[in-house]
Specification:
Layout: E1 11-14, H1 22-28, E2 33-38, H2 42-45, H3 48-58, E3 62-66, H4 75-88, E4 92-97, H5 99-111, H6 119-122, E5 134-138, E6 150-155, E7 160-165, E8 173-176, H7 186-204, H8 212-234, H9 239-253, H10 266-278, H11 282-297, H12 302-313, H13 322-339, H14 346-349, H15 356-362, H16 380-390
Parallel strand pairs: 1-8, 2-3, 2-4, 4-5, 5-8
Antiparallel strand pairs: 6-7
This protein binds 5,6-dihydroxy-NADP and zinc ion (ZN).
InterPro entries: ADH_Fe/GldA (IPR001670), ADH_Fe_C (IPR056798), BDH-like (IPR044731)
Keywords: Oxidoreductase
Protein name: Iron-containing alcohol dehydrogenase
């Protein structure tokens, strides 16, 4: 295990009907005026926004609302929110929705207290020093933004998605009622499960040895997600499956299963260019990128992929040919993605293979030497090769 600091200030309130507690919970955090930020309207149609407003009213907390956070949330909405926060003297942000509404609220929360352009933080020009406090009423199990230190925003003019990972981004409150996710379209449910799996896999594929505890936590969580996703896409009203997925989305990305390991995150960086350029769902993009990334890295990391195959997918270990076991695990992962309705190729995603060089060039580099990823550091040629595997 490598050294770590794990900072997790989020209070989780989980279960049926808990959205009705939001007023009293927000009050305990000292809020006096709340901005409720939500997406394209699903939370209005389901009556959730009205229930949240009633709960805030009952707690005597003033509030204003701003809808319209789009999947792949736009910088333009963030600017609008920052202006509203300042004009209305908002002191707490409450995102109601999935990762997009939450990430948009996170960006507003730091942007409102900054004199310059909030994009400075996402482009790496500046590091934020303060943020307004924020909470979440979660309606979708996927991104894990309800307690992650991350926020991802798309710059509308360039179609570039950029993330900001800082501890200030972690929400103080996450209200999580699995029933709220039952109205999610099947495709979005599958996208969410794919993203949850990917968050665990980004941590699981590490070069750090001797992290048996988190290995086992990752493997157990992945096994539960595989099972719950199969149930939830067939029976969207299955509470237990929805509950498993919702808690898994949280622990997958708040580092409960990631501490003490070096995480990879190359697949995520490559995917962000896909969802930025084609405006596709993040989970669907990961369904295309991650298997290709695994196939590309298999020869150098055969035993790690074989462990994934045996412990997560129940494959038989072939000690004479471990590469066969490793490949069987990747194929099992792909079959699961297919089974829940995910695309596996660039074409199925609606991406044009002609754009591969541009996608590879634009992919954000996270290492000082201009490569991306820790399990295997990738340069532009590697990224192109991975995207060519996805062009099948
Ligand atoms: O906008 P509305 O009308 O609410 O509809 C949304 C949207 O169309 C709908 N939806 C959400 N809850 C629903 C529902 N529809 C019916 N019933 C419900 N209960 O689902 C669609 C997708 O919502 P979105 O918030 O975009 O999905 P998700 O939670 O997957 O978030 C995706 C965004 O999060 C970023 C992604 O890049 C992407 O931009 N990520 C954020 C991370 C983080 N902050 O830690 C980490 C992730 O790796 C990811 O990059
Ligand atoms: Zn993700």
């Amino acid at each position: 295990m490598v050294n770590f600091t794990h900072y997790l200030p989020t209070k989780f309130v989980f279960g049926r009907g808990v959205e009705n507690q939001v007023g009293e919970e927000v009050k305990k955090l000292g809020a006096t005026k709340v901005l409720i930020h939500y997406g394209g309207g699903s939370a209005v149609r389901s009556g959730l926004i009205a229930r949240v407003e009633n709960s805030l009213d009952a707690a005597g907390i003033a509030h204003v609302s701003l809808g319209g956070a789009m999947p792949n949330p736009r910088d333009t909405k963030v600017y609008e929110g920052i202006e509203l926060i300042r004009r209305e003297k908002v002191d707490f942000l409450l995102a109601v929705g999935g990762g997009s509404a939450i990430d948009s609220a996170k960006a507003m929360a730091i942007g409102a207290l900054y004199d310059g352009d909030f994009w400075d933080f996402y482009s790496g020009k500046a590091v934020p020093e303060k943020s307004l406090p924020k909470g979440v009423v979660l309606t979708m199990a996927a991104a894990g933004s309800e307690s992650s230190n991350s926020s991802v925003i798309m710059q509308e003019s360039t179609k570039m998605k950029r993330g900001l990972r800082v501890e200030l981004n972690r929400p103080l409150l996450a209200i999580m009622n699995p029933e709220l996710t039952m109205t999610l379209p099947v495709y979005q449910t599958a996208c969410g499960a794919t993203d949850i799996m990917a968050h665990i896999m980004e941590r699981y594929f590490t070069t750090v040895e001797d992290c048996d505890l988190t290995d086992r936590l990752c493997e157990g969580a992945m096994t539960a997600v595989i099972r719950a996703a199969r149930i939830a896409v067939k029976d969207p009203k299955d509470y237990d499956a929805r509950a498993q997925l919702m808690w898994a989305s949280t622990i997958a990305h708040n580092d409960t299963v990631g501490v003490g390991r070096v995480m990879d995150f190359a697949s995520h960086q490559i995917e962000h260019e896909l969802s930025g350029m084609y405006d596709v769902a993040h989970g669907a993009g990961l369904a295309v990128v991650f298997p290709a990334w695994m196939r590309y890295n298999l020869p150098k990391h055969t035993m790690r992929f074989a462990q994934f195959a045996v412990r997560v997918w129940g494959c038989q270990m072939d000690f004479e040919h471990p590469e066969k076991t490793a490949l069987a695990g990747i194929e099992a992962h792909e079959s699961w993605l297919r089974e829940i309705g995910m695309p596996l190729t660039l074409k199925e995603l609606g991406a044009d293979p002609k754009d591969i060089p541009e996608l590879a060039k634009k992919t954000k580099r996270t290492n000082p030497d201009g490569t991306v990823g820790k399990f295997e550091a990738l340069n532009t040629a590697d990224i192109e090769a991975i995207l060519h595997i996805a062009d099948r």
